[in-house]
Amino acid sequence: MKMLRILVADDHDLMRRGIRPCFNRMQVGKYAAKPITGREAVAKAEELKPDVVILDISMPDLNGVDAAKRIRKSSPDTEVLILSYSYSEPTDPGHSRSRVRGYIVKSDSDRDLIIAVETLANHKPFFTPRATEVYAHKL
Q: pTM to 2 decimals?
């Protein structure tokens, strides 16, 4: 697998720092975890053109779904993995319009996160079985 460029956008410092060790066994060429608002995530994605953006759905200033739409518009080859605190979190069925092809919750395993990033980096969708069950009718 090629060296991946990953951008993590979450407004919680603990989440941003906690995700990094998950990628120690992967070939990650560049890893950035600075943005704390949706608008900052969009700007950083435009600057870095990462392979995968891990994007918190509940970002201040611009929510994750709207940020994903902007990221995909400015960088169509960048895949977006939505990171949420819950499968029951109310979401806009606009995921399909935002072209988000991955969804994971913060309580899922680090293994799921790694598989999700690898899968998205190969431009294939990734949804945990539970996410597929909950959101199949919305996507």
A: 0.85
Contact partners, residue 38, CB within 8 Å, separation at least 6: 9, 59, 60, 61, 62, 63, 64, 66, 67
Neighbour count for residue 19 (Cβ, 10 Å)? 20
pLDDT tens figures, 31-50: 777 778 999 999 999 999 99
User: What stretch of H or E contains 54?
Assistant: strand 52-56
The most distant pair of C-alpha atoms in the chain lies apart, rounded to whole Å, by 36
H or E segment at 9? Answer: strand 4-9
d(CA 22, CA 136): 27
* 75-95 confidence digits (pLDDT tens): 999 999 998 876 655 454 444
d(CA 36, CA 90): 21
